[in-house]
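Work Package 4 report. The design task specified in the project plan requires that, given a folded chain encoded as structure tokens, an amino acid be chosen for each position. We show below one input record used in the internal validation round.
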């Protein structure tokens, strides 16, 4: 059968995103540079496929109560300590997220960390360009979208990435606008991280120092995301659906709403609780399955595998042994496509 062609129809030319991606990357100004240029129409590279945007909702129902865990009294009250461990276990298994309050980090430190990030992003672009690179081996760098050349649509955000442990950068390597607070904030977060790892160890019925002794608390990277105003927010996202490529994430957020997590196949809002920090159980910990993989630094060649203490005939290993370097290389190449990188490593 011969199908007649419509000679009057115009054939839309195929969109080649590579030149536009490179042009944007070469500016070294990020999305903040586009805003400063006064754009009113979203560049094509930031427009997400309709099928990804169709699933975005703005839930107003109050059926879910995002878990908030009060850490006050954790060191001095044994009864309170046990209650906190139980809450961490339940939240990690059912949500994979929880907020912590009375965590010991002064509110002034949290506020100054946010202010320092704003100062960095809102300073003269020529100063920021000194830090811009897509070389993720650097300990301090600034970029826009780690998966810029791989994702179906770029996210509307810029990121300052500072690896603060196990080997911290020299102070002069950090941007002057946030240097002092970055160092102070990191010290506080490392202390909180140790507390959280102990709680997670106990929640797994292990010795409180188990995860720390496995070097799970060795690495710390401050990923500082900045989301400037977007001219057409309905066409893009600040961060697409994803899972984190770490053991745990401690998230400091501002007062703006918009953060959501997937719970029972529904998107649930995370309340912007003053002074709270959001804790996210990352890809490298699979509590609900009883199968754990641990991560330290992104270049570590140490082999990690499911913990023998948590395995049994009824609960066999679900992932093959891997190095964090191998895992992160795959994660970056895959990009934020809405799936867990762990699927690639399943047995």
């Amino acid at each position: 059968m011969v199908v007649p062609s419509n000679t009057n129809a115009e054939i839309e030319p195929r969109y080649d995103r590579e030149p536009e991606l490179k042009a944007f990357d070469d500016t070294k100004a990020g999305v903040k540079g586009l805003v400063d240029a006064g754009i009113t129409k979203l560049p094509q590279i930031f427009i997400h496929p309709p099928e990804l945007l169709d699933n975005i909702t703005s839930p107003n129902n109050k059926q879910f109560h995002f878990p908030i865990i009060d850490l006050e009294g954790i060191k001095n009250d044994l009864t309170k300590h046990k209650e906190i461990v139980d809450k961490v276990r339940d939240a990690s298994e059912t949500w994979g997220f929880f907020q912590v309050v009375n965590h010991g980090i002064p509110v002034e430190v949290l506020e100054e960390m946010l202010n320092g990030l704003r100062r960095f992003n809102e300073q003269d672009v020529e100063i920021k360009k000194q830090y811009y690179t897509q070389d993720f081996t650097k300990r301090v760098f600034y970029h826009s979208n780690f998966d810029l050349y791989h994702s179906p649509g770029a996210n509307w955000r810029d990121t300052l990435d500072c690896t603060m442990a196990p080997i911290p950068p020299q102070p002069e390597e950090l941007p002057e606008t946030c240097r002092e607070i970055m160092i102070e904030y990191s010290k506080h977060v490392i202390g909180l991280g140790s507390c959280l790892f102990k709680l997670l160890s106990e929640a797994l019925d292990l010795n409180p120092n188990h995860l720390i002794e496995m070097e799970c608390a060795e690495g710390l990277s401050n990923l500082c995301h900045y989301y400037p105003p977007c001219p057409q927010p309905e066409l893009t996202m600040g961060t697409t659906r994803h899972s984190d490529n770490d053991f745990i994430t401690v998230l400091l957020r501002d007062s703006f709403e918009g953060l959501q997590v997937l719970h029972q196949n529904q998107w649930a809002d995370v309340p912007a609780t003053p002074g709270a920090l959001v804790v996210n159980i990352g890809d490298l910990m699979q509590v609900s399955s009883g199968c754990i993989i641990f991560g330290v630094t992104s270049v570590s060649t140490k082999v990690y595998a499911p913990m023998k203490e948590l395995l049994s005939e009824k609960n066999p290993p679900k992932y093959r042994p891997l190095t964090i370097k191998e895992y992160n290389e795959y994660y970056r190449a895959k990009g934020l496509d809405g799936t867990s990188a762990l699927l690639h490593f399943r047995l």
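Residues 1-12, 287-299 have pLDDT under 50 and may be disordered. Validation will be extended to a larger panel in the next phase.
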